[in-house]
Amino acid sequence: xxxxxxxxxxxxxxxxxxxxxxxHSLSALPVCENNSxxxxxxxxxxxxxxxxxxxxxxxxxxxxxxxxxxATWDAVVEAFALYQTxxxxxxxxxxxxxxxxxxxxxxxxxxxxxxxxxAGYVLILQKDTLNYSLAEVSSIVEENGGKLLGLxxxxxxxxxxxxxxxxTTNRLSEILQHLRRYGYGILTEKEDDHxxxxxxxxxxxxxxxxxxxxx
Length: 215
Fold this sequence. Notes:
This protein is an alpha+beta fold. The protein contains seven helices and nine strands, in the order H-E-E-E-H-E-E-H-H-E-H-E-E-H-E-H. The strands form three sheets. Strands 7-8-6-9 form a four-stranded antiparallel sheet. A three-stranded mixed sheet has the order 3-4-5. The protein has a two-stranded antiparallel ribbon with strand order 1-2. Strand 4 and strand 5 form a beta hairpin. It is elongated, with a radius of gyration of 21 Å.
């Protein structure tokens, strides 16, 4: 995943901040001091500010979301949705700013992964939150002659989780039977073409979201 090192500091003028928002098509920017991450400033927080104002004048509006350097791509997807942002700061264990992920670039990189590009079956499973196991799902698929292209938690509530996975197999019925035997409900079984169409719809949504956020 590509990271960008752009950030602002408390002494940056709001005039410069607004220029950066426009130049980099972002709705939020990371704020750092001596390379240490201290927060995120959203574009909407400084609307109507005077040109003489500084980032430090808006410290009360700083948000404190970020993603660790070790985060997997599925965790990044969840974070983009959770924080409703087009920019995710990446922080190392020492709290230093490493860079940020840009939503549109991340989506484009995700679409190029084998999870999307290779043909297969997409399954959405449901199980209670306390008893699911991604390792168990992987084993069921592989022990029944399937190949796992990817899986992630696509939703989580207090009682249940949804697991989305993509597999290649010529023994789909056996895999489904074993998943049910281990207590996994099969909510959806999608042909790959339908899933690709849904991904295109998601990509179109992201594009519209980014356009609206940067007007």
